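Extended Data, panel c. Modelled sequence:
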Amino acid sequence: MEHVIPSTTKKRSAFTSSQRASTLQCGHFDPNFIKALKASYHARSYYGPPCYQCTHCSALFWYNERIGSSSGNRSIVYNNCCKSGKVRLPPYSPRPEPLLSLARFDGDSISKSFMQNIRQYNCLFAFPSMGAHIDRSMNDGHGPPIFKICGQVHHRI
């Protein structure tokens, strides 16, 4: 006889109906991006596109990333990006070719293949681009090879 333990926790929707409506109205995301995102994240939650903006730097957030609400006008507050306008960063420079033509969801078969494998490419270049001061005095030939790093590890990309 198989014993089944019923779940006592109820699954709740991550959004209220008004939040769902505002998410559906958020039309600045390419539908192909959404499809590719869903295809690359198997068995993970999908909360829709980030439709909420920081009032200071216009960074995009999901509703669940809110810090709180402003008591005066009950607007949602986000400050994980610029700390309420205290931090200002210059805008990103445009992507160079061929990266610009490869990182497109509506491109040819080469760009589609690139976007499907972009996480593997990122992992491929993560360790080879590492920079650090390597202490080579440890390997004197009398034991297994040792890779010892002194100081701070950084990426050279």
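Residues 14-89 form one domain. This feature is highlighted in the accompanying rendering.
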